[in-house]
Amino acid sequence: MYDCFTYTVRATMEGFGFCEPGTVGEFFAKGHATHGGDVVVNPHGGLLSEGYIHRLNHHYEAALQLRSQAENRQVTDARLAVVRCTRCRTWQHPPTETCRHCAGPVAFEPVSGRGTIYSFIVVRQATVPGHQVPYAVALVELAEQADIRITGVVRVPLDEIRVGLPVKADVVTVGDSGQSVVEFITA
Ligand SMILES: [Zn+2]
Questions:
Q1: Rounded to the nearest whole angstrom, what is the distance from the C-alpha of residue 69 to the centroid of ligand 1?
Q2: What is the pLDDT of residue 115?
Q3: Are 21 and 58 in a shared domain?
Q4: Are 42 and 1 in contact (CB under 8 A)?
Q5: Which of 49, 73, 97 is the last residue of a domain?
Q6: How many angstroms is it from 131 CA to the middle of ligand 1?
Q7: How far is the CA of 102 from the centre of ligand 1 (A)?
Q8: For position 63, what pLDDT does the model report?
Q9: 154 falls in which pLDDT band (50, 70, 90)?
Q10: Statement to judge: residues 94 and 118 lie in one domain
Q11: Spatial separation of the C-alpha atoms in residues 34 and 25, rounded to whole Å
């Protein structure tokens, strides 16, 4: 969770429905937001512990958690999740703190990681370590809802990639970089 200021975490926790409005202080004080609690927030220590690199460390930590490689910070049962309205049940991505459709409250819910390629490009100038050019980066439409799309490298031979191809998310370490990211493989 992005934590450029202490207040940001407090507002985001309540906004995404992890606790009731006005109760986040008590939520943290009672240990609900750390290991053994209901919602483990920033087990890597967040920006204060790791330095300000604009959320990249949060993505890295999330990938480590999904791969069960976070060692003594590992959260039990970490899963890929997307924000969903608790009233009209519409999925929302990028996440918002209020439903775009009915203005209702939202919460994170696990997703399957399965979907189909909505669009893709072929990268011919390497931008990610550990990948041999050319490789493809796709916009993947998740199976949960037609307009929920996330991006990632697709580890499928270029001559097999097409719009509509079924794929599934896979969290991988890129080359010898030590970086973990979500990529897609054939479903
Ligand atoms: Zn809604």
A1: 35
A2: 95
A3: yes
A4: yes
A5: 73
A6: 39
A7: 4
A8: 76
A9: very high
A10: no
A11: 13
- Considering the domain boundaries, does residue 137 fall inside one? yes
Distance 121 CA to ligand 1 centre (A): 32
Whether residues 89 and 152 share a domain: the answer is no
Q: Which letter does DSSP use for residue 132 in this model? A: P
Report how far ligand 1's centroid is from the alpha carbon of 85 (Å).
5
Q: Over 80: is that where the pLDDT of 148 sits? A: yes
Closest CA to 96 of 151, 5, 33, 105: 105
- Overall size of the chain counted in residues: 187
Same structural domain for residues 106 and 118?
no
Q: What's the 21 CA to ligand 1 centre distance in angstroms?
A: 18
> Which of 159, 152, 157, 66 lies closest to 117, judged by CA?
152
What is the whole-number distance in angstroms between the Cα of residue 134 and the centre of ligand 1?
41
Is 135 within the bounds of a domain? Answer: yes
pLDDT tens for residues 30-83? 999 988 888 889 888 888 777 777 667 777 788 788 777 888 888 887 788 889
pTM of the model: 0.70
